[in-house]
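TODO from last week: model Hsp33 family molecular chaperone HslO.
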Amino acid sequence: MKQQDCLRRFLFEDLGVRGEWVRLEQSWRQAKQHQVLVNAGVESQLGQALAAVVLLSATIKFKGAMIMQIQGAGELRALVAQATHEGKVRCLARSEERVSGNDLMAMLGEGGRLVLTVESENAEPYQGIVGVAERNLAAVLKTYFTQSEQLDTHLWLFATAEYAAGLFLQKLPGDNQDDADWQRLIMLADTITEAEMLTLDCEQLLHRLFHEDKIRLYDPQSVEFKCNCSRPKIGGTLAALGRSELESVLRERETIEVDCQFCGAQYCFDRIDVENLLTNPVIHEDAESTRH
């Protein structure tokens, strides 16, 4: 049985380096089914973003969600991928009907940027931003970690119509290990192929790449597609627009209909619903839909 829809953490015990492996199958297919992916290039970029956000969310201890937003003014407008601490994922893509170019920077056009947001239940949101000045997401994230976190980090990301997968290596903070060991691990990992990443299980891949090193492999964490939209959250977002805006819409139609961009769920609010939202405001859990 192939390992699918799971994350594996591992540690090079003698080298001060940690790693992660992820491969998504059903969760990736379900997450993208409500998105308009105009070509295989956009599909691959979205799959890489989803695999990456799972890997990154596993590097921190928090209860909440990590959101990766990749934005640009080119033919590819936006990619959004989210993973919670429980391994629930969702994503969306926005683009023109035709997207040319075969790398992320070309698709986004000038001024592309990546925004990483950590929303924790117990702390204020943390946000980091880096410009997209490289051809692929893995290189952009390497730059992000170098600039924002001062941590040597490498990722290898692959995605097809069937799978999204990734490998992550990072020096442990404050560990003064020999840089030659780190460079050796990167050189070995650079030999990985897309076929190997999408077909080999974690143990097989680690043996293939690092059989000479002592690795501690932790239990798998499952990953699944699950949207956290809800009627109260959508209602809170509508209420934030204000009475005049909502009443203006209701003068033209009987109801306000909102579709979740991530999962396609439909929410309908009539005049009574809207009045209730405005006169009895509910503190909604988050306002992600206002950002996306």
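Done. The first helix runs from residue 26 to 32.
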